[in-house]
UniProtKB/TrEMBL annotation:
Signal peptide: none
Alphabetic keyword roster: Allosteric enzyme, ATP-binding, Cytoplasm, Kinase, Nucleotide-binding, Pyrimidine biosynthesis, Transferase
Name by which UniProt lists this protein: Uridylate kinase
Family membership: Belongs to the UMP kinase family.
E.C. no: 2.7.4.22
Function: Catalyzes the reversible phosphorylation of UMP to UDP.
Catalyzed reaction equations: UMP + ATP = UDP + ADP
Pfam families, sorted: AA_kinase
NCBIfam families: pyrH_bact
Modulation of this protein's activity: Allosterically activated by GTP. Inhibited by UTP.
Source species taxonomy: Bacteria, Bacillati, Bacillota, Bacilli, Bacillales
Chain intervals for the UniProt region annotation (Involved in allosteric activation by GTP): 20-25
Subunit description: Homohexamer.
A GO CC term attached to the entry: cytoplasm
Length: 240
């Protein structure tokens, strides 16, 4: 059996990735495919935590631009991530993967509240832990949640699975045909060049805690496993 390069990982999934080609909501075939890929990694003995965005259902920033109170709009976005997390949990458990959802906003009827030590214990028992409801605070993205949780649980790497791009480019490859794909970058490069890999808060948090990031496409099945095995896919962003 192949030896994984990382023992404990945080997988960051965008909400849009769950929508697939339909662009909104949860695409059953897509979430089943992602669940199968997560199971592949868990079967290697890797401890997997997942952070899911909510952009396929609601974006707090969009609500704010419509004139809604920003905090209210962001809380709605956090609830969208809970819906996505429960859907992913259901898909994983249909595959026989033991899973726990922990939310930053308490809703005990559907999930556990986030407790760091409990999350680590679940991981040690080889349960997949899904972190929902962002950080529990408005004005912070799920990218920042992924960086924060990765630091808290001492993850070896953040795997950022994208649905429309296979790495980090110098410009939007859909718009600029001359856009260059980077194999490796530093967080400082990302912040200085405004490359939009993750927001500046998340990038700074990763840089300060020396957490590497791998950006790759989720649309090619098996890519999560390839990233965990240390294969050369996507773009690697490092602290230094």
């Amino acid at each position: 059996m192949s030896n994984p390069k990382y023992k404990r990982v945080v997988l960051k999934l965008s909400g849009e990735a769950l929508a697939g080609d339909q662009g909104y909501g949860i695409n059953p075939s897509v979430i089943q495919s992602i669940a199968k890929q997560v199971k592949e990694v868990a079967d290697l003995g890797v401890e997997v935590a997942v952070v899911v965005g909510g952009g396929n259902i609601w974006r707090g920033k969009t609500g704010s631009e419509m004139g809604m109170d920003r905090a209210t709009a962001d809380y709605m976005g956090m609830l969208a991530t809970v819906m996505n997390s429960l859907a992913l949990q259901d898909s994983l458990e249909h595959l026989g993967v033991e899973t726990r959802v922990q939310t930053s906003i308490e809703m005990r009827q559907v999930a556990e509240p986030y407790i760091r030590r409990k999350a680590i214990r679940h991981l040690e028992k080889k349960r997949v832990v899904i972190f929902a409801a962002g950080t529990g605070n408005p004005y912070f993205s799920t990218d920042t949640t992924a960086a924060l949780r990765a630091a808290e649980i001492e993850a070896d790497v953040i795997l950022m699975a994208k649905n429309n791009v296979d790495g980090v480019y110098s410009a939007d490859p859909k718009v600029d045909q001359n856009a260059v794909k980077y194999d490796e970058l530093s967080y400082l490069d990302v912040i200085k060049q405004g490359l939009g890999v993750m927001d500046s808060t998340a990038s700074s948090l990763c840089m300060d805690n020396d957490i590497p990031l791998i950006v790759f496409s989720i649309m090619e099945e098996g890519n999560i496993k390839r990233a965990v095995l240390g294969e050369n896919i996507g773009t690697v962003v490092r602290g230094k």
